[in-house]
Amino acid sequence: MKVGIKVKFWGVRGSIPTPGVKYVKYGGNTPCVEVLLPNNQLFIFDAGTGIRELGNTLCKGRKKHKIHIFLSHFHWDHIQGLPFFMPSYIKGNNIVVLGMDLEGARLDKIISNQMESIYFPIKLHTLAANFQFQILAEGSNDIEGTRVDAIYINHPGQAMGYVVNFEKVKICYLSDNELVPLWAAKYSETAYRSNTREKILKLISGADLLIHDAQYTDEEYKTKVGWGHSPFGEVMRLAKDGRVKKLALFHHDPDHFDEHIDVLVADCDCKENPSRFSHVMECFAAHEGMELHF
Ligand SMILES: [Zn+2]
Ligand SMILES: [Zn+2]
Fold first, then answer.
1. Distance 15 CA to ligand 1 centre (A)
2. Closest ligand to 178 CA?
3. What is the Å distance from ligand 2's center to 31 Cα?
4. Bridge-based pairing state of the strands 169-174 and 32-36
5. How far apart are CA 19 and CA 146, in angstroms?
6. What is the pLDDT of residues 236-263, one digit of tens each?
7. Residues 6+ apart with CB under 8 A from 163
8. Tens digit of pLDDT for each residue in 118-157?
9. How crowded is residue 123: how many other Cβ atoms within 10 Å of its Cβ?
10. CB neighbours of residue 71 within 10 Å
11. Domains of the chain, with CATH numbers?
């Protein structure tokens, strides 16, 4: 029995947008995931360039929207689409931006700074929609009746992961998280807190969907320790240990063309041989336009 939750991927690419014929299947827009709950609550995770198309779609009707945008962190690929989010320009829309404060920089300031005239012609405070900012710290949050857990993940400069709990469905969004294999822990430049994995594991346990950074192959990762992104093998291990039902590989490397990603997914242990695990996990690479229903 489905609860009626829609999850749609509007941007799945990491680091920088990748237009062009080599990226048609998985898409070139940077992170943006829509979670639409059956009560019509609209949650958006990250405001990469994918949010532009989502915004345009929302503006097709006359309906006014209340939109919650959860930001994982403020690296360009996660906020660059926000100034191009059409609902911001329409009076009557209510937009709540949620995310962490950084040391010495408040959430609202970080967002308005990216629209300073040096970078962008229109200032945040002149936008027609009503904007609110909600600072989140690690822990459980009640977002208008829906429980959203926030957790600090392992990324240079800090990032936050989110878990939406609606009725019995659990959807996890962990972009830009470096799961450090044991061999690499001693080389990691980032202050990797060894209990991060345990905390994440607890939170994602039994999830219906885990959307997780899987930017590198295990081989590529060897030269990218401390860059803040995960090797495939570790993501798979985490998902397996957490007994998640569906694993969406996310934040694809800009150098991974469509055929590269196809090969990587075909090599996924869980797809090849589900019986190796104590439970059946569906594993796939997220692509732009992909919709899942729970
Ligand atoms: Zn990123
Ligand atoms: Zn990042």
1. 5
2. 2
3. 10
4. unpaired
5. 36
6. 999 999 999 999 999 999 999 999 999 9
7. 148, 149, 151, 170, 171, 172, 173, 203, 204, 207
8. 999 999 999 999 999 999 999 999 999 999 999 999 999 8
9. 12
10. 25
11. 6-293 (3.60.15.10)
